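The following block was generated as part of the benchmark described in Methods. Ligand: adenosine monophosphate.
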Amino acid sequence: MTFNDLQLLRNIQQALAEEGYEVPTPIQQQAIPIIKEGIDLVGCAQTGTGKTAAYLLPLLQTLKYAQGNEARCLILVPTKELVVQVERSLAVLATYTDLRWVALFGGIGPKAQIEKLQSGVDLIVATPGRFLELYSKGEIAVKKIKHIVLDECDRMMDMGFWPQLREVQEKLPQ
Ligand code: AMP
């Protein structure tokens, strides 16, 4: 199977080619068609098997281009380090799109993150704690969120994030 078989948009395939991705990994082959259809999915794959791109590629394709000011996709991850890692993949894979995103994590002041939110974003990559903190300050509009990813969900559970994940879920549209 090739990325062409997965019917990804040309601007996404161009980024993949430049990054040297030639064939989709097994998790990508299996997950991308399902996510593209908008079907919920639980994926299990070891670190290093390409699972970040397995969800980013179909989501980028679905979101397509910058639209409005409010986020349409929320990616929750357990740690700041993973936020940074996901953002790095996003920057590569979305090179030839005009999609906008913000990375939200604690340990630094929220000013720059709030400014980015206010300037308009399509995706949010966040730790649950910082997401809820900025939501409670009224800085995050959630009405347009249609897609949610819980990356390393098992680790989030191990780290005791279950109550926060429930809280986030309650705030999102049905
Ligand atoms: P991940 O499992 O998401 O942490 O990805 C591990 C590494 O594999 C990252 O450095 C990606 O850039 C790389 N990668 C992801 N998908 C592919 C692919 N289809 N071909 C080659 N490298 C890939």
